[in-house]
Amino acid sequence: MKQLIQNTILLVVFFWLALPVLAKEMAPDILVKSTVDEVIAILKQDNGIKKGDKDRVLDLIETKILPHFNFNRMTRLAMGKNWTKVDPQQQKVLVDEFQTLLVRTYSNALTNYRDEMIEVMPLTTQADAKRTTVKTRVIQGRGREPVPIDYSMEKTDSGWKVYDVTVAGVSLVTNYRSSFNSEIRRTGVDGLIASLVKKNKSLEGQ
Q1: Which is a Pfam family this sequence falls into (predicted)?
Q2: Sheet of 159-167: strands edge to edge?
């Protein structure tokens, strides 16, 4: 299951690399759809990314993706009931390290893009909804089954934000909640933080 998440996580990044200036005024499905063509064009044309320029990839992610994800909420959801048991300083470190983990995972996966196509499903949520799920399918070609990727989003003052991603029926938040809870049971919150730091350093070196 972990490998599935790692192998498909690059597909998550497609929608958040080049959002228009008026993104916060757009419906979430239109927001997703409007980025697909531009993002795929960038991935196909950017020689630096295709050659694995890590600094270029990281800069792209940090400037274009991070503003559209609610990492604070994602971390709270991944921590579950353990979130209220940690002090504010630990909470901040956890959010920072979890964000770094996802960024490093994205950056290492992004260079593996191989001409996949994305289909965005029309949104059926009511116009005044505060939360919604944008459903997409990644068409892989070569006779392989499409990979469904759903984005759980919420409306905020600064636009729609992603707080969970479900790949082939597996929630990113739920997947990490299981591993976080297991680590906390074994080594406590400090042990979890240490394991995230170690994992981030290993990803940085790849």
Answers
A1: MlaC
A2: 117-120, 131-139, 147-156, 159-167, 170-171
Contact indicator for 111, 57 with CB cutoff of 8 Å: yes
Question: In 10 A of CB 190, how many CB atoms?
Answer: 12
Contacts of 123 (CB under 8 A, 6+ apart): 27, 28, 29, 132, 134
Number of helical (H) and strand (E) elements in the chain, helices listed first = 7, 5
Residues 170, 5, 135, 74, CA torsion sign: positive
Dist. CA 98–CA 115, nearest whole Å: 28
Q: Is 107 helix (H, G, I), strand (E, B) or coil?
A: helix
The amino acid at residue 202 is S
Q: Are the beta carbons of 120 and 134 closer than 8 angstroms?
A: yes
| Prediction pTM value | 0.81
Residue 67's nearest CA partner among 162, 197, 185 is 162
E strands within the chain?
117-120, 131-139, 147-156, 159-167, 170-171
Residues near 85 by beta carbon (within 8 Å), at least 6 away in sequence: 189
Structure tokens at 47: 């020689």
pLDDT in tens, 41-67: 777 777 887 787 888 777 777 776 777
